[in-house]
Amino acid sequence: MACKVFTIANQKGGVGKTTTAVNLAAALASQGVETLLIDLDPQANATSGLGFEKEEGRSVYAALMGEGDASETIIPTGRKRLSLLPSEVDLAAAEIELSQHENYLGQLSQAIQPIVDSDKYRAIIIDCPPALGMLSMNSLASADYLLVALQCEYMALEGLGQILSVVERLHEAGVNERLEIGGIIMTMFDVRTKLSREVVDEVRENLPDQVFDTVVPRTVRISEAPSFGQTIFEYDKANPGSTAYRNLGKELIARFALK
Predict the structure, then answer these.
(1) For position 195, what pLDDT does the model report?
(2) Separation in Å, CA 85 to CA 48, 62, 69, 73, 185
């Protein structure tokens, strides 16, 4: 079965994007899917969230510049079936340097294609910076599916329309015609507020086939876990957030036939 590449992107920060990338990747791995998480954010929050420090030369940066092999920077996470391609500070320079390449939107696709073709992984999840800059656009240009992490608040709906229009533009420009909306993940759901319920209902009404059934709750434990270099499953396996990400993993496996 072919490897499928998912990018988790949103131009708005603080929507649970990295948290979702880390915990969804861990959920897939725990359910038998060989998974690679690529940290494309120079802040390296996905890297530290799995308990690793930023290390010079240990990222996709050199491969993006056409000077290295991305597969050589992949590291085991100590978690069965979950590998990590970490981030580092140098990736921040890529935002500027990528624009100097002729195929500036296709650099990441070229860099990770050997990994995709290796058949070692069934799923690759890319965590992007919280802005639609060069790195995020490269991620969209290299992915099969876009997963949108959407916070349960009205301002988030504005951002949803923007990122969906970016996908349309990539199609029209012939940059990545295979890119599809893989689904919308509702995050930071506060069961106590009417607003959260209204936002979920509105998104489901407008995009009924796109929204995952699983809604990720807002919990302190999900926020705390990265500071200990742990996934929510390791930090508090009985937490509602742990249940949510496990169920989200099951949905992803079923929707995209990952097993």
Answers:
(1) 81
(2) 12, 12, 12, 6, 23
Beta bridge pairs of residue 147: 8, 183
Rounded Cα gap, residues 129 and 241, in angstroms: 23
Model pLDDT, residue 15: 65
Determine the Cα angle at 207 with ends 205 and 208, to 5°.
65
Residue 155, token pair as written in the block: 């301002």
pTM, full prediction = 0.95
pLDDT tens profile 196-253: 888 888 888 888 899 999 999 999 999 999 999 999 999 999 999 999 999 999 999 9
131: Cβ–Cβ under 8 A, 6 or more apart, which residues?
11, 13
The count of domains in the chain is: 1
Question: Which residue ranges of the chain lie beneath pLDDT 50?
Answer: none
Q: Position 174: which residue type? A: G
> What element of type H or E holds 126?
strand 123-127
Q: What is the largest CA-CA distance in the chain?
A: 52
Domain, as residue range, for 217? 4-255
Partner residues linked to 82 by β-bridges = 35, 79
CATH number for position 10:
3.40.50.300
CB crowding 129-155: b at 16 or more within 10 Å, else e: bbebbbbbbbbbbbbbbbbbbbbbbee
